[in-house]
Amino acid sequence: MRRDVFQAIADPTRREIINLIAHQSLNLNAIAESFDVSRPAISKHIKILTECGLVVINQQGRERYCEANLKSLGEVSDWIEQYRAFWTSKLDALESFLNRDAAASGKTKSTKKTKRK
């Protein structure tokens, strides 16, 4: 099964693993200690992250250290950017419409004269 970065970040545990190792390399035990799930479950999450290219495992003596490779998140950023651009243009158009409508309403109100007694 081919996994992609979107599958990797879909799970909150995997997102938290990425967050943990984004700042420093950690060994598998240190990562597992941060969660209330079994060590094999964490190993499975790390395997998925490795398959997606978000984690690189380096062997140092008997320890295996996980290091974040966040370049793959560029794919997510690119995908999100197309929707950000779409919604920004739509919201800008709505703002312009509302401003024109408010200006037109302001002119209508200011041209009406009220009688004073």
Automatic annotation (TrEMBL):
Among Gene3D superfamilies, the record links this protein to:
Winged helix-like DNA-binding domain superfamily/Winged helix DNA-binding domain
Residue stretches making up the HTH arsR-type domain = 1-88
> Do you know which InterPro entries this protein is assigned to?
ArsR-like_HTH, HTH_ArsR_DNA-bd_dom, WH-like_DNA-bd_sf, WH_DNA-bd_sf
What the entry lists under PROSITE patterns is as follows: HTH_ARSR_2 (PS50987)
Xref: Pfam families:
HTH_5 (PF01022)
* SUPFAM superfamilies noted in UniProt: Winged helix' DNA-binding domain
Q: What residue range is the signal peptide?
A: none
- This protein is called ArsR/SmtB family transcription factor
